[in-house]
Amino acid sequence: MIRLLSLAVVLCLPAAVRAQQAETEPRYQLRAVGELGFLRVHSNTVRYGREGTLFRFTEEGGQDNLFPLVRLTAELSWRGRHTAILLYQPIDLRGETVLSQDVSFSDTTFPAGTPLDVRYGFTFWRASYLYDFLAGPERELAVGASLQLRNATLTFTSAEGLRRWASRDVGPVPALKVRGRYTFASGVWVGLEVDGIYASGGFLNRDNTAESFDAGLLDASARAGLRLTGALDVFLNLRYLGGGARGTDEEEAASGRGDGYSSNWLDTASVTLGFIYRLPSDSL
What we know:
Blueprint: H1 2-24, E1 28-48, E2 55-56, H2 57-60, E3 66-78, E4 82-89, E5 92-98, E6 103-105, E7 108-110, E8 115-132, E9 139-158, E10 164-183, E11 188-200, E12 210-227, E13 232-249, H3 250-254, E14 261-278
Antiparallel strand pairs: 1-2, 1-3, 1-14, 3-4, 4-8, 5-8, 6-7, 8-9, 9-10, 10-11, 11-12, 12-13, 13-14
């Protein structure tokens, strides 16, 4: 009899776990996440043309201070395992400088002594999917993929407006994604999140015409937060965001504007305060 009762308990455990999970995790959950803080550029370099100048934004482009940072995310989870994420990340870094040396980009040269207005824009949108291997709302170990749409704009304009060089680029960037979180009984929680990829060849080039092309992206963060109410969390986030590309675009070289070579690498760190707001599940 004892053995039969034990067997019955074991067989009922999965159903009990599923029932408990259903009570604690809504079938659908919509979350709004916002972050506000500052971004520090540790390194940002560009070169256009193999004989062009290696331009360092932090030393020569006025990017040696702190920049405001806003990050907005919407998340939809369903069945306690699946999560779709939409992220908007504006990045618009501007600076003013007086050139200490001649600076050349492809077919354009700014002579030493030129007052220069510099803009480095790298705003992007990112869509992600995650599958959580751990049940329950208090912990997460999720793996998935992201697709980022980059929207890069670089402009160098002499202060009198007589000379300008600009580069614009829009294209998709796929990446792998991992996210984890653990919540303590006190309501304090810690988490991490990583989106990253490295590729060579024409895989990340918008035209896939580069004979030799290296590109990478890494967006990694660690955060600690506190659940204030059933609907609201606050957290502190530390983030590294960097990446870039280097290679020769054969179509651009054939167009006659320089040799088609470009190199662009960015390394930043940021500190933000954020919130997570959970919409009532019965509103979905």
